[in-house]
Design goal:
- Strand 8 and strand 9 form a beta hairpin.
- It contains 6 helices and 15 strands.
- The longest helix has 12 residues.
- The two termini are 28 Å apart.
- Helix content is 23%, strand content 27%.
- Strands 5, 8, 9, 10, 11, 12, 13, 14 and 15 form a 9-stranded mixed sheet that branches. The chain has a 4-stranded antiparallel sheet with strand order 2-1-3-4.
- With 235 residues, it is an alpha+beta fold.
- The protein binds uracil.
């Protein structure tokens, strides 16, 4: 790839900022100053900006605590999208949400530009568990919780076995492995109830970072990224 792309991707600069830095001689490739913005480098090259090595970032992985009022899409004519919550400097990465949460659902949403990872995470064969916190309109009985676990008729299908954990009379955590349209809300309806608040707590083994306020986000750490790629990309 071109040196200006390497520098802008790796050092979170715009392309014009990276070109200026290169032309001013602030960029070294291996041990040489290179002023040619189109100089060809590979992802493994050692590139330095002002003496600091740049780690080239091809893929970006962001954990977002989605607030209500935002759609899980990359663009929408009427509503704000989850991408509107990110700093504009992320626009060059062409991020997209892995799966969808309803506009009134909060919680864990992964944003990435890694298509292979997203595809694998969303694949029904992978049986990835998604854990939701539900506040219900009415009290839920133990036998209704049992039914949610065994599978309920939501019209298009009987849901696959799920795991439920009671928190109090009107609140449960529910882990499902499918991702049918409005699945959790339809499951609650199937046992004669209604969801009044829904938050996704976890995606697979990944739990929402409790330090993230509604609407805030952070990059996954190197360990988290490595774990995710090991689980979903190397199978
Ligand atoms: N199930 C729902 O009903 N809504 C969501 O946003 C996610 C799962």
């Amino acid at each position: 790839m071109r040196l200006d792309k390497f520098v802008s991707d790796g050092a979170a600069m715009t392309r014009s900022e990276s070109r200026k830095a290169i032309k001013k001689g602030r960029v070294l490739v291996e041990n040489e100053i290179v002023k040619d913005i189109a100089f060809s480098v590979s992802e493994d090259c050692r590139v330095y900006l002002d003496g600091n090595e740049i780690a080239y970032k091809k893929f970006v992985y962001i954990m977002l605590n989605k607030p209500q009022g935002y759609v899980s899409a990359t663009e929408d004519k009427k509503q704000k999208t989850v991408l509107d919550l990110l700093d504009p400097s992320y626009s060059r990465y062409q991020l997209f949400p892995v799966g969808r949460l309803d506009i009134d659902t909060e919680g864990f949403l992964l944003l990435t530009n890694d298509g292979e990872l997203a595809h694998n995470m969303l694949s029904p064969n992978k049986n990835v568990g998604k854990t939701y916190f539900l506040r219900l309109e009415k009290q839920i009985t133990d036998s209704e919780i049992d039914n949610l676990e065994k599978g309920v008729d939501i019209g298009e299908c009987i849901t696959k076995p799920a795991k439920a954990e009671r928190i109090c009379e009107r609140e449960i955590n529910l882990t499902i492995t499918e991702g049918k349209f409005h699945q959790i809300k339809r499951m609650a309806k199937a046992v004669g109830n209604e969801v009044v608040y829904l938050k996704r707590l976890a995606y697979g083994n990944f739990y929402l970072d409790e330090a993230l306020e509604r609407g805030s986000y952070r990059s996954l750490t190197e360990e988290e990224t490595e774990y995710l790629c090991n689980v979903y990309k190397r199978k």
